[in-house]
Amino acid sequence: MDDPVKGEGRMITDVSGVTRREGGILGMWGNIFPERNGSNEQKGDSKPHIPDIRDILDIFPQPLREKLLNKISEVIDYEPVIGVMGKTGAGKSSVCNALFKGEVCAVSDVEACTREVQELRIRFGKHSLKIIDIPGVGENAQRDKEYEDLYRNLLPSLDLILWVIKGDDRAFSADEHFYNNVLLPAGGGERVLFVLNQVDKIEPFREWDTHLHQPSPAQRINIEKKEAYITERFGFTHYPVTPVSADEGYNILRLVETIIRALPDRAKK
């Protein structure tokens, strides 16, 4: 694949081998950014179009909007860094795509696409937020050993970790190994937000409402059971498990809200 990351902006590979995309706003963030017009620049203006953050958050109810604005004001003086981790096939890149509302990370049902760290940036005027799409674990023992070191090296720079779990997955050994042996010893436990992705595949998956893009009542019950199971399995209660379907666009706004609430007041150095 020539360019595993598609979208706006330009690709930059730094001296450490990290590939990142720089540019203006990459599409819509969880449906709260204005739609792209195919370019980061307006005609006759070399500056990227940056919408006012208050206009961006107008989609939320007033009380919630004020809380989000207050939280953003607390973190606006630095660039928060969010790492997206999880097992191969959980849909990490799809979650990144949903957050940016565009195909900015390569997605494949056949192979593990994210072989290297990919950085994506959302800009708020002079400020920005960075999301790092990190290679998935559980593909094979050799790669997992390499990724253990990668995860440990990246952890100190991350303000928040989205650990993505596939909705219909029943095997958690790789997730548990990395959580218990890599994240927790490095002090990353309090920064982890579990994301239950692909909930449209949770039984009875044929009852998924394809018109409204939401689960059926029976699916909702099983999704709640899966959330409780993950919380019990990992012994983690700092943040609630957030169920989403990145491909269906389900619950992405709730994920955005949870991310903003979970961001620390100060950057971790």
UniProtKB/TrEMBL annotation:
InterPro entries: GTP-bd, P-loop_NTPase. One of its GO terms (molecular function) is GTP binding. GO terms for biological process: tRNA methylation; tRNA wobble uridine modification. Residues 82-183 form the G domain. It comes from the Bacteria. GO terms for cellular component: cytosol. Pfam families: MMR_HSR1. CDD domains: YfjP. PANTHER family: TRNA MODIFICATION GTPASE GTPBP3 (PTHR42714), TRNA MODIFICATION GTPASE GTPBP3, MITOCHONDRIAL (PTHR42714:SF2). This is GTPase family protein. It comes from Shigella boydii 4444-74.
